[in-house]
Structures are given as structure tokens and as C-alpha cells.
Input
Amino acid sequence: MSKENAVRFDYTTDEGRKEVPLYSGLLVYFPDALKQVAHCSKIANDQHNPNETLHWDKSKSKEELDSMLRHLVDSISEDVDSDGIYHLAKVAWRSLSELQRRIERVSIYKNFKPIK
Output
């Protein structure tokens, strides 16, 4: 599917926001998994940006798909990495970061109206 065919919605309208159920469609479904991904963010920030507030330094992380697949393969033989973080939390983080980069690269969610 091309980027032109991606699902689009406008966050600035009530209708558009209702198409994105962050609480009922994400947080309620995966509360423990999301906590692990958030913990993964903090541990990585502490490692790569010591003594700095939590932030994503995109210049330090550019091989999302290689890292994601490496952790996926590692998760087959062990659940937890040597730093105490679930490999699958790292897979999820890398997957989300790759998706975020692609969304930003094509500006897919900027100034779109909800599809009816």
C-alpha cells in the first residue's frame, strides 16, 4: 500500500479524535506491555544520555529495523536481555520508532481530514 492510501484522520476535530482511541484501544489492551516499553525508553535514555531528562535523541539511533529483528531473534532463546529489559519491549520500541520516523518523513498525519 502506498503512503497515499494510508489511513488518515485529523486530530483537531472531534470526529478525527474519536477515530484514535488511545485509551480504550491501546492502553486498556496492553497496559503491562506499554509499561515495559516506557521502562525500556528510560533505561536507554539513562545509558545513551546520562544525567539528561528523558528524550529521544534521533541522531543516536538510526538502525531501527536491524535492532528490532536482532531483539526478535534473541527473544526466541531468552525473554530478557542482559540489561534486564524484555527483548520484546525493545522490539516494540524499535517498531514504534521506525513507524514514527516514517510518519514524520512522509508527513502523513499533517493537515489531513478524516476519511468518510
Observations:
- The mean pLDDT is 87.
- The helical segments are 14-18, 22-27, 31-48, 64-77, 87-106.
